[in-house]
Amino acid sequence: PEYRLVAYESLDSTNEEAKRLARDEGAGHGTLVWASRQTAGRGRRGRPWASPEGNVYASLILRPGCMPAQAAQLSFATAGALADALQPLLPEAVCRCKWPNDVLLDDRKVAGILLESETDASGTVDWLVVGVGINVQHYPPDAEFPATSLREECARLDEPRAVLVRFAQAFATWYEVWKTEGFERIREGWLETARGVGGPITVRLAHSTLEGVFADLDTDGALLLEMENGERRRITAGDVFFPG
Ligand code: BTN
C-alpha cells in the first residue's frame, strides 16, 4: 500500500479511530493511524490492551477488495511482517509467530494484532483495519501469557516511530506477496517462523481445553491439532500455550 500516516498524541484506540475514518470519512487504502498512547486500547476477545507512552499503537486501513475469508489471511502476513521487522533489532533473541497472530521474543509476547472489518451488501470487504501493538519500552507484567518488550531483550532500542516504520516497510512486502501470489506463500512464510509447529501444545477454547500436537496450519489459517487418538481437529479460535 501507499501509506498516509495520521499521527495522534493520544486516542481511545487506534482501531476505533481507523474504523471511524474508514466508515465515516472514506479514508483510503494505506491510511496508517498512529498514537503515542491509548486510553482504551483493546486486545483480542475483548481484552484490554494497556497502552502507556513508549510502545507502538497503530492501525492500518486496507481496502483489499476481497471476501472476508481472504481478508482474515492478512493477520498471518502481519505477524510475518512483524517478525521480519523486529528480528534485525534482536541479535540475541529469536522472534517467532504464535498462532493465530501474536509475535514472541524468546517465548514471551512482544506484539499483538487485532483485525476488524466491515463487509458491504455484496459480501465484499469494504474496509479492513489491521491493528498492531508492539511492546517497545513497556510490557504488562501480569499478562496471562508471559510478555516482554524490545527494551527488555535488545541492545539497540529504536523509538516507537522507527519501529512502526520498520513494520510498515516489512508489511508492504508481505502484502504484495499476498496480493500477487495468494495465501499459500504467506502460509509457508508464517510456518517458517512459527513457534511450536510439530510439537505439543495446549489450546484453550471458550469452554474447554485440548492437548495435542500442532500438526500444521490449514490452507485457510486454521490450526490443525493432532490428538492422542490420531484425530485431527481444526481450531479456528483459541489461545495456545506451550509446555515447560
Ligand atoms: C492482542 O494480542 O490481543 C491484540 C492486541 C492489539 C493491540 C493493538 S494496539 C493498536 C490497536 N488499537 C487497539 O485498541 N488495539 C490494537
From TrEMBL:
It catalyses: biotin + L-lysyl-[protein] + ATP = N(6)-biotinyl-L-lysyl-[protein] + AMP + diphosphate + H(+). The keyword Ligase applies. It holds the Pfam family BPL_LplA_LipB. InterPro entries: aa-tRNA-synth_II/BPL/LPL (IPR045864), Biotin_CoA_COase_ligase (IPR004408), BPL_C (IPR003142), BPL_LPL_catalytic (IPR004143), Transcriptional_repressor_C (IPR008988). Keywords: ATP-binding, Biotin, Ligase, Nucleotide-binding. The keyword Oxidoreductase does not apply. One of its GO terms (molecular function) is biotin--[biotin carboxyl-carrier protein] ligase activity. Its EC number is 6.3.4.15. Residues 1-179 form the BPL/LPL catalytic domain. Transmembrane segments: none annotated. It is an enzyme of class 6 (ligase). It comes from the Bacteria. One of its GO terms (cellular component) is cytoplasm. This is biotin--[biotin carboxyl-carrier protein] ligase. It comes from Skermanella stibiiresistens SB22.
